Amino acid sequence: MNKLSNQSKDDVISIDSIIDALYDVISGEKGAERDWDRERYLFHPEARLIVIRKEESGYLDTKVMTPDEFIQYAQPFLDGESFYEYEIARKVEEFGHVVHVWSTFGSKNLIDDDKPHTRGINSIQLLNDGNRWWVMNVYWNKETDEFPLPEKYCS
Looking at residue 143, what is its pLDDT? Predict the structure, then answer.
């Protein structure tokens, strides 16, 4: 078994491991190639990633992507910049095979930066099919002056 297979298998054994892998796989130094096969392995074949953006005009835009479309969207930025995203806090709700995770995140340019340049919340839906965990959806919104992070999601 190759290194990717061992790492990937470990990534999907628990809620903690799959959430940790989501943050780890997109983080790295400028020029460091991300492990996109590992990223793909985390996601169910029917998964979606959804970003909310507010245009300067005030128009609220959403971009819905498959995991491969997300990679095409994020790769030029992630490969060209030092970028570290990490979890600040987590709230988990479970029922049956479905889990919803409110994961508050911070983003830094350098791993040693004191404060994040961006914060926000990832709304993550997970599925446990009895064999492994899958990311079904990641829906995120950055913190803004209009929408500061609620305290209940910061600790």
Answer: 94
